[in-house]
Every structure is written in C-alpha cells, then in structure tokens.
Write a structure and sequence with these properties.
The complex is a heterotrimer of chains A (about 575), B (about 130) and C (about 250).
Chain A lengths: L4 E8 L3 H13 L5 E5 L15 E2 L8 H11 L6 H20 L14 E2 L9 E2 L5 H13 L5 E5 L1 E9 L2 E9 L4 E12 L20 H8 L4 E2 L4 E7 L10 H4 L3 E3 L29 H13 L4 E3 L2 E7 L4 H8 L1 H11 L8 E10 L2 E3 L11 E3 L4 E2 L11 H23 L5 H19 L8 H15 L3 E2 L1 H18 L13 H25 L8 E2 L7 H4 L1 E6 L6 E6 L15
Chain B lengths: L16 H32 L1 H11 L2 H28 L3 E2 L2 E2 L2 H24 L2
Helix pairs in contact in B: 1-2, 1-3, 3-4
Chain C lengths: L1 H4 L5 E8 L9 E8 L6 H12 L18 E4 L2 E4 L13 E4 L6 E3 L2 E2 L2 H9 L21 H7 L10 H5 L1 H5 L6 H11 L7 H8 L13 H5 L6 H21 L6
Parallel strand pairs in C: 1-5
Antiparallel strand pairs in C: 1-2, 3-4, 3-5, 6-7
Helix pairs in contact in C: 7-8, 7-10
Classes of the chains: A alpha/beta (about 575), B mainly alpha (about 130), C alpha+beta (about 250).
C-alpha cells in the first residue's frame, strides 16, 4: 500500500495563475500545506510565450474607469461588469507585487515603470518587459515561489481526474510521468490553473501543452464550461508555425497592409489612417475586428497567397533598427528565424491565428466554481472579464488578479474542509487507473492519436473559425462526435509505464475532444454575432436574447446548453466604436 | 525509474575545438610551473656563490634547456593571449551608462601588458 | 497530389538515441528516414516520427518558438534547441540526435532535471530585502541603466544547453553550473536586491564559481544570449574584490 499524498490546497498548473495562487495562499497562511501539480516543469508553462505585456492603470493620465470601459467595449458587453471593476482595481497592485519580486519591467528614464499602447485602449497602460513579458513574469513568479517551503511541487505529474466525494472536490488522480504510477493526491480544495485549449485548432499560437485539461476535468465533474464559443484569433501570427507576433509591434507603430501596400483597416470603420499611431484606431483596434477584416480582404482577393495560406504584411520598417531592437527584439528574432526575413528591412508576413479562449470553467469572482472545493483561474477559467473578446494585455493581469483571489479563497475553504473520505477517494483512484489501462491503453485498436487529433483540429477550423454558420457548425459537431467514436478504437505504440508521452497525448486528446465539443455546440446555439463569435447567418448582435453567458454541461451525448445573465452595472450595452 | 548515466569519455576534450584549446591552456600551466622551479633554483645558486651560479647558467644554456624555455615562452604567450581574449567576459565597464565594448577591454589588457613589459625591460636593461 | 510527389520526394536520415529503461539496460540508436522539408526544424522531424512512424519516441517540447526551454537535445554532438535548429543546415547529411550530455537519461531524449532544480533553489534566485516596502509606496525605482546591468542574465530559459556544454559539470557534478550562477548573479546585480552577500557566501565556494575554469562553451551554446560564462567571471571578480576589501580594510566592511 502506497502512502497517500495529502495536502490542504492543491493547484493544478504551474503557470502564472497557478503560481500566483500558490504564493498568495502561502503568504496569507504560512502553515498551509500547498502543492502544485503540473504536467511540465513550471517554467515551461505557456505563460512563457506571452509577449506584449500586462494591463494595469498606473500612470496619472489614465483612470480605472477607462480601463473598465476598454475591457467592456472589447468584450462586446459580455463581460461581467462587477468582475471587471474589481479586476481593474486590483491589477495595478498585482503588477507592483511582481515588480517588488523582481520582474524586469521596462522603465522610463526616471526609473518608473514604462507603459505602451495596445489594441482597443484609450490610454497607454500595458506594462512590458521588452517583448518577453510572459517569460519574465513566469520566471519571476516561479523563482519567487521557490522561497516558500510550504509549496511542494509535483513536476511532470499529469492530472487525469478530479475526485469528488460528499459533494465536494477533494483532490485529483494523477500520473507521475517518470514512473508511470497513477496516484491519488487528496486535498481540502483544488484550483484549476491549467491554461487554454488552443491546440483544439490546427493553427494556433499556443504551445503543445495547451490542451484544455482543466476545462475537461471540471466539465467531467459536472461543472459547466462558460462562453466556450468565444475563441480569439490574434491578427498577426507567422504563417506555417502560428508563432505569435505581438500586438506591441503595432503598439509601437507597426502597420498592416494588403498586397497593394494599402492600409486596408481604414475600409472597415477603423480609419482614418492618419495621424498614426493613434489609440483605439486602425491597427490598434480590437483583435476580433482586425482578424475579421483580414477575412474581408481575403474575400476581395487583396491578400497575398503564400504556401501556408493567405497573408498580409505587418510593416515595422519605419520604426528603425534602434527602436525595433529596443522595444520588440523578440519580434525581430522570431521573424528572422522562422520566416527568414529581417523586419528592419522587409515587412513580416502574417495571418490571423487562434490565440486565446475567452471561455472556460464557470467561476465567480473568487474563482469558485459551482462545485464546492473546486476553484479555477487564468485562461482555464471564465469569470468573465473577457466576454466575447479579450482586450489585449488583460490576460497576464487576469492570471495574477484571479490567481491570487482563487488562492486566497481556496485556502480559506481548505482550512475549513480537511480532506476526509480517503477510502472513497482511493476507490475512485482505482477506478481511474482501470479506465486508463482498459480504455486508453487497450489491447487492440487501430486509430492513431495523431490522426484523430488532426481530424478534430480540421473540424474545428472548418466550422469554428473567424466566421461561422449553422451548416458548418453542425458539420463540425458531427465530425467531433465521429472522432469521439473513433477514440474508442485507439491504439498506442507505447506500452511502457516510464515517461509514456503517447499515453499523455491520448489523455490530452480525450480532454480536447470535450473542450472542442463545448466550443462547437455553444457556437451552434448562439444565433447572433458578438465579438469573436461571428455568425454569417445571424450577423447582428442580439442583446434581447443573447446578452447572456453560455453554460455548457456535459451529458452522455451532445452538451446541454444553458444561459446565465451578464452582470451589467454602470455601462449599458452600446455600439462598439473604434477609429474616428 | 532507472535513469541511464552516460560516462564522460576520456577523450572528451578532443570532441570540440573550444574544449581542445581550453585543455591546452590548462596544460600550459605545467610548463610555466616548471619554469618557475628553474627560476627558484637560479636564486638558490646565486646565493650559493658565483661559481655555482656560473655552472647553473651554463646548464641553462644547453640546447635542451633553451628548447624548454622557448616552449615555456610559447605557453605563456598562448595562455596570455587566450586569456585576454576572454577578459571582456569578466570585466564589464560602463562609461556614461554605456557598456565599454569587448574589443576595448582586450586592447586595454594588451596596453597594460605592454606597459608592464616596458617597465621590466627598463629595470633590467638600464644597468 | 500523389502525382506531384513522384518527382522523388527528398528524404533525410535521423539517427535517434533510444533508451527504454523497462526493455533495455543500454541505449541504442534507431535510424529513421523521413521526408525532408526545407522549412522544418529538427523538432518537426521528431514530431513527424512520433505522429506517423513510432508513437513511442519520447522527448519534451511545447512552445516551438525558443522560449519555453523544453526541447534541448544534442544535435550532431552540439547542444541545441531543436525548435530552432533547421534540417536545411544539415541536409543531405544524416543528423544524430541524443539527449543533452552530462544529464542522466530518463528515457530516449528526455533527461532528468532534478539536479538543476535543486541547484536553482540553492542559489536563492529571488529578491532578498532587509525591509520590504509596502506596495502602496509604488514601484522600486530602477533606471534603464540599472535594468541594463542584469537584464541579459535574466533572459535564461533554463534549457540546460549550458550544462550540456560544460565539461566541468560533466566531470564534477557538484558544480552549481552556468545557468544557476547566472541567475544568482542576475539578482546580485539587480538594484532592488539586498541579498548579494548572502548569495555570495553560497557562490564563492569550490562547487560554486571557483569550480569554473572558463571554458566559455556555455556562452557559445546559449540560445538566449545570457552569457553565463561572463556572469561567473564577474562573480569571481566581485568575490575576489570583496575578499581584498575585507583583508585590507577590515574595519570598513561591517
């Protein structure tokens, strides 16, 4: 009989949200026994890839109200305004906390923190560390977390199931990758901080690990996934790889041009083009609109055909070598390495790319899900402050604000609810082990993980892209159901226990199919266009019917879709106006 | 879990140019140490009287010893030059907020070397 | 589609280190001949093998843009991030892929990182202050020049290429090593930090900076331009000067 691994607070995921939750809980309750379970070493988490910056009001020319307005307008009024308000209020302190922990924020000559403009903002308020903000933020948080001896880490452990007993979440079952052992880790409360699910699409900025694990874990435990139909396309990804070229390139003055060298955004209500740069206009419009404009241009035949689909050009040449090296050196490095062009001398080919899931595990502003003892934060969660389209640079701040809130709330819950029902939990753990060995590692099968994954990704791209309609969404739902059926005939080449990455890939695919289904069915049910969800068969926003959050519940078959009112406080729904 | 540890091969320093030059640089210290031994013996002979000293000088003039001294000189030069080339890594100087370029640091090292050599030459040669 | 490919699809040969602890006690090399694409990196080739040929091939990867630090391997004997090492730089010759040198191998191309993770904690890579200022007082002021002093040392992605390149680490596994020392030095040079002396006590030891004999290969292989060799030499200089100051001015250094 192996020892039971017991903790007060268990955090799944070691990215920005998970690490912030852990440090917040550890600071508040030094004697709390905290553990982080992460399928990768924390410094590999996808936070590391965030480039442009983190939003928070710090400068005297800015105001909390403006940040709130920008966020709500960006969200196409689908964000909960009470949550946005407290997010905006708490973001600056969180960013300052990171500063005190050593984050190398870029500075003004007087030594104060510098900010840069981002899309959809009335004021410059994006804190940045050159253009590797996520990287610095993650490493600062991780290194800071190392000083807390109360935080135990399970690096390279993959959580496969939440254990729920007596109506509350009491831990997880996880695979220790290096041994292949399947173990129960029990806790008084669990926080899901597992990030997004961009890998359900074929063309994404997301790293290989963004497979919606936490979303699926919660979904399977009966917790609804909220607003999953809202998938953000970032307007500037490198063709082929999908590597992100940060919005900061445009914030610093970069422009988007079509095959004629024309700044096409002026044709879609974002102009006039000059003077430039100008806040909330042209290339500094919101991401959903810019990605949609690309499709319009493509339909007009004004994009450029490349080997990896159509592209437009992001031109930063006029910034000059010095500014490029100083403000966006990573952009230069990535363009040179991956598309073989130097942005100092040539424009960068770009196309819209899946970047971020606005939706996620349904939580309140404390990060609490409807399942007692289960919390979620970061991209895995949906509070919602992002609504139908996230404002650029809000996601890192969101990880910090709601990571900390979830950490504190879950810690309080854990102190009142020590894990108890160990025998029952052990039984669930044995069930889970049986499921994995008999269904995923089954003795015969024909389907490869990669084949099914590709089928799922292509189905998502064809039906759940920038523009959607009923027929293509229905087709996607059908294809996903077939892929789910084929998953039952899976075959793994790898039969060993030690470090079985193919088994992990299969379990991730299993999770992704859940997330993909939630996206497709939620999109099918929302017969309006709002933010990143554009229905060509329902092109108008419909506040009367759809000023509501979607809640998708897992069932045996198609998800059950329900709705929840959006919290509107001081900012009644209005038209989104940019440009001018 | 049974991790596999790969032993370091005895010829590791032949697998890569940098390693080779590094090991050669480390080995130069053997020649330089030997040179120091001969120098110390020289001092002892000097203290023992003019005859002992003259005999030792004759020994030092033998072809084998000349060859050794040439080799020691080459080793010292090799060591100094490769070491100076690495100097910018250790020394980061800032003048008015800007980092002094590596080439300048290297040049300054050579200049210092030259000055010291001139001083030594002056002391030795003035009599 | 198929007709076009009959124009002799070009291929490239990968010789991949395999070690499956449950099946074998010694590693072997397995040869794969796979399609050659001009714009593929070594990681794309490995993914092709895993997806289409042999699902049991084991390695780590995630961001595929050179910042998560997962995919370091020996490519023809040189430590590289495989996500930014292009096949075209080797074609038409075969490419030999091995796990990073100087680390135990968990399986195939995945190394065991425990040693580094312990050393990272050991050097105390976080801001140490005698007194923490309240957040309400705002940010610690730090000029761009002050930032510039340590910024490049903060770029370390923990990819372990420097440890794989360091013969000292290979011969003396107790050596704290390039990345951990560079990160310690990153905090030593940060104007907000006051833990320099505490960290110097850890670094200025035989397993610390004094184990380094300046091969310099860590800096050469670093994909993030961190210059760990520089960090170590600077720490040596600072340590030596600190010692001199204590010896010469014993009363001035309380």
């Amino acid at each position: 009989m192996v020892d039971v691994l017991r903790h007060d607070l268990l955090i799944i995921g070691g990215g920005a949200a998970g690490l912030r939750a852990a440090t917040a809980a550890a600071q508040l309750h030094p004697r709390l026994n905290i553990a982080i379970v992460s399928k990768v070493y924390p410094m590999r988490s996808h936070t590391v890839s965030a480039e442009g910056g983190a939003g928070g009001v710090i400068k005297s020319n800015d105001s909390l109200d403006e940040h709130i307005q920008d966020t709500i307008s960006g969200s196409d009024w689908l964000a909960d305004q009470d949550a946005v308000e407290l997010f905006v209020r708490e973001a600056p302190a969180e960013l300052l906390q990171l500063e005190h922990w050593g984050c190398p924020w870029s500075r003004e000559p007087d030594g104060s923190v510098a900010v840069r403009p981002f899309g959809g903002m009335q004021k410059e308020r994006t804190w940045f560390a050159a253009d590797k903000t996520g990287f610095h933020l993650l490493h600062t948080l991780f290194q800071t977390s190392l000083q807390f001896s109360s935080i135990r880490r399970y690096d390279e452990w993959f959580a496969t199931r939440l254990v729920v007993e007596n109506g509350r979440c009491q831990g997880v079952v996880a695979i220790e990758l290096r041994t292949g052992q399947i173990r129960l880790i029990s806790a008084g409360a669990v926080i899901l901080a597992t990030g997004g699910a961009g890998r359900i699409f074929p063309f994404t900025t997301n790293g290989a690990i963004c497979t919606g694990d936490g979303m699926a874990l919660a979904y399977r435990a009966g917790v609804p996934l909220k607003d999953m139909e809202f998938v953000q396309y970032h307007p500037t990804g490198l063709p082929g790889t999908g590597i992100l070229i940060t919005e900061a390139a445009r914030g610093e003055g970069g422009i988007l041009v079509n095959k004629d060298g024309y700044r096409y955004l002026q044709d879609y209500g974002l102009g006039p083009p000059d003077p430039w740069p100008r806040l909330r206009a042209m290339e500094l419009g919101p991401r959903d609109k810019l990605s949609q404009c690309f499709v319009y241009e493509m339909q007009k035949g004004r994009t450029i055909q490349g080997p990896y689909g159509d592209i437009v050009y992001l031109d930063v040449r006029h910034l000059g070598e010095k500014k490029i090296n100083e403000k966006i050196p990573f952009v230069r490095e990535l363009a040179r390495k991956y598309v073989g062009i130097d942005p100092v001398h040539e424009p960068i080919p770009v196309r819209p790319v899946v970047h971020y899931m606005m939706g996620g595990v349904h939580t309140d502003a404390q990060g609490a899900t409807p399942l007692p003892g289960l919390y979620a934060a970061g991209e895995a969660a949906c509070v919602s402050i992002n609504g139908a389209n996230r404002l650029g640079s809000n996601s890192l701040s969101e990880c910090l604000v709601f990571g900390a809130r979830a950490g504190r709330a879950a810690a309080a819950f854990a102190r009142e609810h020590p894990a108890a029902d160990l025998a029952a939990l052990e039984a669930q753990s044995r069930d889970e082990e049986r499921r994995i060995t008999t269904t995923v590692l089954r003795a015969e099968g024909t389907e490869r993980v990669s084949t099914l994954r590709q089928e799922m990704q292509l189905a998502m791209e064809s039906g759940c892209g920038i523009f959607r309609d009923e027929a293509s969404l229905q087709e996607t739902c059908n294809r996903l159901a077939r892929a789910r059926g084929r998953f039952m005939r899976l075959w793994l080449d790898d039969r060993s226990r030690v470090y079985n990455t193919e088994l992990v890939a299969a379990l991730e695919l299993d999770f992704m199919l859940d997330a993909a289904e939630a996206v497709a069915y939620s999109a099918l049910a929302r017969t309006e266009s709002r933010g990143s969800h554009q229905r060509t068969d329902h092109p108008q926003r419909d506040d009367a019917r759809f000023l509501k959050h979607t809640l998708a519940y897992r069932t045996g078959g198609a998800p059950r879709v329900d709705y929840l009112d959006v919290a509107i406080t001081r900012w009644p729904p209005a038209q989104r106006v940019y440009g001018g | 879990m049974r991790a596999y540890s790969r032993p370091t091969e005895f010829n590791w320093w032949l697998t890569n140019r940098t390693y080779f030059f590094f090991v050669v640089r480390e080995l130069t210290s053997v020649l330089i140490a030997a040179y120091m031994v001969f120098l110390l013996v020289l001092l002892r002979r000097l203290a023992a009287g003019p005859e002992a000293y003259a005999a030792y000088l004759r020994f030092l003039g033998s072809p084998g010893m000349l060859l050794f001294h040439l080799a020691a000189l080459a080793a010292a030069l090799y060591h100094s030059i490769t070491w100076f080339r690495l100097a910018p890594m250790a020394i980061t100087l800032r003048v008015r907020g800007r980092r002094v370029p590596g080439a300048t640091v290297v040049a300054a090292n050579y200049a210092a070397w030259l000055v010291v050599s001139l001083v030594v030459a002056w002391i030795v040669l003035r009599s | 589609m198929m007709a076009e490919q009959t124009v002799a699809e070009r291929t490239i040969t990968l010789e991949v280190f395999r070690y499956r602890p449950e099946q074998e006690s010694e590693p072997t090399f397995q040869t794969y001949e796979i399609p050659y694409r001009e714009d593929w990196v070594v990681l794309d080739a490995l993914n092709y093998i895993k997806d289409s040929v042999d699902g049991s091939l084991t390695y780590r990867w995630s961001c595929r843009m050179g910042v998560c630090g997962s995919c370091g391997m020996m490519v023809n004997g040189v430590p590289k991030l495989t996500c930014s090492t292009f096949l075209k730089d080797y074609y038409p010759h075969p490419i030999r892929i091995e796990p990073l040198a100087n680390f135990p191998v968990a399986r195939d191309l995945a190394i065991v990182l425990d040693d580094f993770m312990a050393k990272l904690v050991h050097v105390r890579p976080w801001i140490i202050r005698r007194q923490e200022e309240p957040l309400e007082a705002g940010e610690y002021r730090q000029t761009p020049e002050e930032l510039d002093r340590y910024k490049h040392f903060s770029m370390c992605i923990n990819c372990m290429l420097c440890y794989a390149a360091c013969p000292i680490y290979g011969l003396e596994p107790e050596f704290v090593g390039p990345a951990a020392i560079a990160l310690a030095q990153r905090y030593n040079l940060d104007s907000r930090d006051q833990g320099g002396r505490e960290r110097m006590g850890i670094l200025s030891t035989h397993e610390g900076i004094w184990a380094c004999t300046l091969v310099g290969e860590c800096t050469t292989v670093c994909p993030a331009e961190v210059d760990p060799a520089g960090a170590i030499q600077q720490a040596k200089l600072a340590s030596a000067l600190g010692w001199l100051r204590r010896v010469l001015v014993p009363w001035g250094n309380k």
